[in-house]
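Reminder to self: tokens first, then the designed residues, so the page reads top to bottom the way the pipeline ran.
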């Protein structure tokens, strides 16, 4: 199994070297810049009648809204990559299927507050220990569960230029978000602002990663043949 994994890794590296990708630097810069502007707007423009930091503390604030939108986009780009690979009968397919399902779950979690509700339930039966609450523990577990998934699909991830780099960047911001979330007690407006800003930057890079992965899938796919039926 180890030799098979290493062989797949080498094959993916060779594929990556000759893979085609359009210039995406401007897309990345513009997207990150727009996200930073959005964060600033969320800081200084609070809905009428709401408290300072509302957009970062409340689950109904602007940060949660953008986070859910970006996660939904990530799932959509993953699904689009899956569709292209299925059409061309090439791998990877399982990676994009798992990514699409994972982002769909995270989108619903962001909107319906699955981990917050579960955290409140567990709180009645067990203490959160050194952590602020069970919500924080569940969010950390999300990140822990993602690591073995990334390890399994690493050869597939490496096939796409810039995909791994953007995923790593997203994980760095996720780690910053989790660190602030787990250590700042009691939560303040300042800590919540830094925490949620790190989260939205993490989700932004996830959306960028899946979009650029989709571009890589599309740019390296075979064109539709003249005798191939379109539906």
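Designed residues (231 positions):
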């Amino acid at each position: 199994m180890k030799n098979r994994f290493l062989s797949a890794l080498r094959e993916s590296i060779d594929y990556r070297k000759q893979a085609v990708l359009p210039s995406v630097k401007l897309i990345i810069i513009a997207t990150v810049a727009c996200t930073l502007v959005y964060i600033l707007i969320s800081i200084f423009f609070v809905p009428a009648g709401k408290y300072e930091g509302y957009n970062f503390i409340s689950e109904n604030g602007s940060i949660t809204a953008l986070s859910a939108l970006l996660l939904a986009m990530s799932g959509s780009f993953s699904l689009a990559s899956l569709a292209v690979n299925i059409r061309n009968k090439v791998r990877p397919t399982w990676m994009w299927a798992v990514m699409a399902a994972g982002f769909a779950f995270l989108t619903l979690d962001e909107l319906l507050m699955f981990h917050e509700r579960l955290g409140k339930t567990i709180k009645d039966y067990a203490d959160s220990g050194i952590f602020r609450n069970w919500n924080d523990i569940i969010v950390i577990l999300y990140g822990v569960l993602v690591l073995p998934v990334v390890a399994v699909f690493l050869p597939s991830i490496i096939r796409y230029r810039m995909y791994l780099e953007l995923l790593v960047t997203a994980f760095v911001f996720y780690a910053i978000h989790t660190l602030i979330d787990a250590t700042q007690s009691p939560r303040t407006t300042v800590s919540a602002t830094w925490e949620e800003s790190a989260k939205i930057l993490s989700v932004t890079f996830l959306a960028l990663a899946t979009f650029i992965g989709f571009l890589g899938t599309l740019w390296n796919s075979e064109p539709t043949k003249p005798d191939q039926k379109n539906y």
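The chain is about 75% helix and 0% strand.
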